[in-house]
């Protein structure tokens, strides 16, 4: 049964009729292009009062209500070119830019924070909810769930940001129990439970909400499943970071979810900053790989983790005397961004340690910074990490295809925290476990591309602090995230002035819209409107003759007793673009009637 066309009364008898004028011009579009009102001024929106109804001056015939019609013109946003480009850029250059973008799906460029050795991890920022709530999440290729502490958590530590408050997000929903998930004891909600090797754990319920990727992202906010924690133990309880961003292989992985929605290609990249720098960059989605990127196969059938085909290790140009199969036992050689150091099987570590000791015999071996660990440390190497190559040898990893990844000293050493100019080996024996585990230290100042579509992993030595410039990323500006700022705040988003003229475009070719965004202004407080947001979504879907799942509330702004809501219409299912009948509401109106 269809939902009723009008909302039930909220406490006032005012009737508001909103008409969204949707004149979307034909243009040669890109699959990832966006049709939107990018700027809007409250003072320039025009209203027409309509007191028809035969009820005289007080509108008695319509129950004393006043009906107002509001027109919001929808402008086609120009392609976001380099801000330094002249405003009179030719149509040819615009079309060339569109052709350039047509070759790939959008990606989410994101910054990395913290330091591998000071914090033990790298984090990125993710915003969840409407309005968005910010979280610092450890990027972890060994985890398959993204989770944050929930406001209802009874056993969660004190972390960097406030806990997620589902009640403050108008777009949040719990994932209800079904045959495809583990359910709670009451069989009401889907739950998750993760145990880690260092004896920490996380558990909670699964929810669905809008996830935003930051102001560097070309990728628009997306609905995604994530964990709302109700219990943490071990390091997860005591760490400063809020939670985990799971990048592993699995249905709940943020990467798998975005790939399944067909909004990014099946790839992502991480680039960790070097010694003493920290930070770095990451990309969800594909990139144009550098010509000299080194590749190795990654077989998803080999293990559930991101494995690589390591066959040899060289120290100072000399191969370690090892059976190549030593790197292929149990899970093989695994890349794990959530692990700090590297761990080799016993025989491989013994050979590696001996080779390093032989090359640095002139240095003095000293005790490590923590007496609880038997670290192998050396003094007398100097304080400048850029000069370490003159003292410590080059290490190379040789893959099954013969390609080599060169490891500079910063990729296998960490700075001694108590002795100036001293360094310690960051590669250890993996106990009795025959798996080779390569943590973040191995890939500092290395762009690592996890090309899942082609079952390979690529490595490119670079300065991760300047990755965007070195990769020559497109200068197109990304769409703004859904009202986010630098805090976990629900502060209002202030709209800017509207354009005075409708931009002109080449209208000779067919439109292909990957997303339509528009604003809706309502003269009602958002707290009163919030319970009816799902109903409003269905009304919009009905008017456009689309599925309700295509309509998403991105953010809202409260202004006095009014609300400005930003909506997005996405293509159905896994489609890259939506039909012209949806994207082009040419010279027509979207009428939504609301009784308030």
UniProtKB/TrEMBL annotation:
Biased composition regions of type Basic residues, renumbered to the chain: 97-106
Region (Disordered), start-end ranges: 80-106
Active-site residues, as the UniProt record annotates them: 140, 336
Domain of life: Eukaryota
Keywords: Aspartyl protease, Glycoprotein, Hydrolase, Protease, Signal
Comp. bias regions, Low complexity: 80-96
Domain Xylanase inhibitor C-terminal: 306-459
Any GO MF annotation of the entry: aspartic-type endopeptidase activity
Signal peptide start-end: 1-32
Hydrolase listed as a keyword: yes
Boundaries of every Xylanase inhibitor N-terminal domain copy: 122-286
GO biological process, one term: proteolysis
Recorded family membership: Belongs to the peptidase A1 family.
PANTHER family membership: ASPARTYL PROTEASES, OS07G0592200 PROTEIN
The name this protein goes by in its record: OLC1v1000516C2
Provenance organism: Oldenlandia corymbosa var. corymbosa
């Amino acid at each position: 049964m269809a939902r009723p066309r009008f909302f039930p009364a909220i406490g006032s008898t005012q009737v508001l009729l909103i008409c969204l004028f949707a004149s979307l011009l034909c243009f040669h579009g890109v699959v990832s292009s966006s049709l939107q009102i990018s700027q809007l001024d409250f003072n320039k929106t025009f209203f027409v009062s309509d007191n028809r109804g035969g009820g005289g001056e007080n509108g008695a015939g319509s129950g004393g209500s006043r009906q107002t019609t509001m027109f919001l013109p929808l402008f086609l946003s120009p392609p976001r070119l380099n801000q330094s480009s002249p405003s009179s850029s030719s149509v040819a250059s615009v079309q060339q830019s569109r052709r350039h973008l047509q070759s790939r799906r959008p990606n989410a460029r994101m910054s990395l924070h913290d330091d591998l050795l000071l914090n033990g991890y790298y984090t990125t920022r993710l915003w969840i909810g409407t309005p968005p709530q910010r979280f610092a999440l450890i990027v972890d290729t060994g985890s398959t769930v993204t989770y944050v502490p929930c406001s209802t958590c009874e056993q969660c530590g004190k972390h960097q940001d406030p806990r997620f408050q589902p009640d403050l997000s108008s777009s949040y929903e719990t994932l209800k129990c079904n045959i495809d998930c583990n359910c709670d004891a009451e069989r009401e909600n889907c739950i998750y439970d993760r145990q880690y090797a260092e004896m920490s754990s996380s558990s909670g319920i699964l929810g669905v909400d809008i996830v935003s990727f930051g102001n560097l992202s070309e990728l628009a906010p997306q609905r995604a499943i994530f964990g709302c924690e109700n219990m943490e133990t071990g390091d997860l309880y005591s760490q400063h970071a809020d939670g985990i961003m799971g990048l592993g292989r699995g249905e709940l992985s943020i990467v798998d979810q975005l790939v399944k929605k067909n909004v990014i290609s099946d790839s992502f990249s991480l680039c960790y900053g070097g010694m003493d720098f920290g930070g770095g960059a990451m990309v969800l989605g594909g990139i144009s790989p550098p010509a000299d990127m080194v590749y190795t196969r990654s077989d998803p059938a080999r293990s559930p983790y991101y494995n690589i085909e390591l066959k040899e290790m060289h120290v100072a140009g000399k191969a370690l005397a090892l059976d190549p199969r030593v790197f292929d036992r149990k899970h093989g050689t695994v890349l794990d961004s959530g692990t700090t150091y590297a761990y080799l099987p016993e025989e491989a570590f013994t050979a590696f340690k001996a080779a390093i000791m032989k090359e640095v015999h002139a240095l003095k071996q000293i005790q490590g910074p923590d007496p609880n660990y038997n670290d192998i440390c050396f003094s007398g190497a100097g304080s400048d990490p850029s000069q370490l190559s003159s003292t410590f040898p080059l290490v190379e990893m040789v893959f099954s295809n013969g390609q080599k990844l060169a490891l500079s000293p910063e990729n296998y050493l960490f700075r001694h925290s108590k002795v100036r100019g001293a360094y310690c080996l960051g590669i250890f024996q993996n106990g009795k476990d025959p798996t080779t585990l390569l943590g973040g230290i191995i890939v500092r100042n290395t762009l690592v591309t996890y090309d899942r579509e082609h079952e390979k992993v690529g490595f490119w030595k670079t300065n991760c602090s300047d990755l965007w410039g070195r990769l020559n990323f497109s200068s197109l500006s990304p769409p703004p995230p859904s009202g986010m700022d630098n805090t976990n705040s629900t502060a209002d988003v202030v709209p800017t002035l509207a354009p005075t003229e409708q931009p002109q475009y080449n209208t000779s070719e067919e439109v292909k819209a990957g997303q339509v965004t528009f604003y809706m202004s309502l003269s009602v407080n958002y707290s009163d409107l919030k319970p009816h947001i799902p109903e409003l979504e269905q009304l919009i879907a009905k008017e456009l003759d689309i599925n309700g799942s295509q309509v998403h509330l991105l953010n809202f702004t409260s202004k006095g007793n009014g609300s400005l809501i930003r909506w997005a219409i996405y293509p159905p299912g896994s489609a890259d673009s939506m039909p012209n009948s949806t994207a082009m509401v040419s010279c027509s109106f979207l009428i939504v009637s609301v009784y308030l």
